[in-house]
Design brief:
Blueprint: E1 2-4, H1 7-20, E2 24-29, H2 35-47, E3 50-55, H3 65-70, H4 75-85, E4 89-91, H5 95-98, H6 116-120, H7 124-139, E5 143-147, H8 151-163, E6 169-173, H9 193-199, H10 201-212, H11 218-230, E7 235-244, E8 260-268, E9 271-279
Parallel strand pairs: 1-4, 2-3, 2-5, 3-4, 5-6
Antiparallel strand pairs: 7-8, 8-9
Helix pairs in contact: 7-8, 10-11
This protein binds pantoate (PAF).
Residues 28-30, 58, 61, 128, 131-132, 150, 153 line the site of pantoate.
Length: 281
């Protein structure tokens, strides 16, 4: 497995790979890797012939300096995990490589960025769009793989790719969970053992909602789920929203023909966790 930091080095390896490989797959990450990331590498290996991962903790997508500072950084372990998973090339740029000057671009994603994460983390998706567009430009992959845990992020990246006419195919991969049901996240590394147990209630509440939603009106179900969160020790609910999968518009009643996704953001101590579940109609 090759590891490169400079964009010029990345591009010369990719140029060579293009001579012998038909399809370049790309898995962008911020490091602190877990099984969720490795499942993306696995998918990339199944669907493409040369797999590139990037590790870059992007400062522009953190709306709180403290969150950026505390984001786990585990480069040596990450590289070992990527090597063992069969990744071909890892791109580990510095902030100066990605942002040689301040990125002044302001994206407009309309309603997609005015709800949930967009509402609660101002500027977050603009930072995601800035870095992902730069990474796509540097790597020039055919297919990029993202986790469905960041469901709204995937919708934003799809919109960005369309706005900028980037010739790349996007694949969303299923959420990988701990045996307790807790969605895998780099932020889980900041949870204590007790907090991990407490945080496993998130998926329990989501699966309860998915199993029982037909017995309630939408507002009743929301109330019930919110009550479950309020009575869950150690958890502080930020939002629980039930939205249309494509538009992310909040639903007021059960639709007949659109996919429903229930999305949640919760604080467990100081750690902010997100999760979601798709309801089958
Ligand atoms: O999902 C993530 O890890 C990040 O938001 C991404 C897509 C790597 C951009 O920094």
């Amino acid at each position: 497995m090759l590891v490169v930091t400079a964009i010029a080095d990345l591009q010369s390896v990719i140029k060579n790979a293009r001579l012998t490989h038909q399809k370049i797959g790309f898995v962008p990450t911020m490091g602190a890797l877990h099984q969720g990331h490795l499942s993306l590498i696995k998918q990339a290996k199944a669907q493409t012939s040369f797999v590139v991962a990037s590790i870059f903790v992007n400062p522009t997508q953190f709306n709180e300096a403290e969150d950026f500072k505390l984001y786990p950084r585990t480069l040596d372990v990450d590289l070992k995990m990527l090597d063992e998973s069969g990744c071909d090339l890892v791109f580990t740029p510095t902030v100066e490589d990605i942002y040689p000057s301040k990125d002044l671009r302001k994206f407009d994603f309309g309603l997609l960025e005015q709800v949930m994460e967009g509402l609660h983390r101002p500027g977050h998706f603009n930072g995601v769009a800035q870095v992902v567009s730069k990474l796509f430009d540097a790597v020039q992959a055919d297919v990029a793989f993202f986790g469905q845990k960041d469901f709204q992020q995937f919708a934003i990246i799809k919109a960005m790719v369309k706005q900028l006419n980037i010739p790349i195919h996007l694949v969303a991969c299923p959420i990988v969970r701990e045996p307790s049901g807790l969605a895998m996240s780099s932020r889980n590394q900041r949870l204590s053992k007790l907090q991990k147990e407490q945080a496993s209630a998130i998926y329990k509440h989501l699966t309860w909602a998915k199993t029982n939603f037909k017995q309630y009106s939408l507002s009743e179900l929301k109330n019930e789920v919110e009550k479950c969160f309020f009575s869950s020790e150690g958890l502080e609910l930020e939002y629980f929203e039930i939205v249309d999968e494509n538009t992310l518009i909040e639903l007021n009643s059960w639709p007949v023909d659109v996919k429903i996704v229930a999305c949640v953001a919760v604080f467990c101590g100081k750690v902010r966790l997100i999760d979601n579940i798709v309801f089958n109609l």
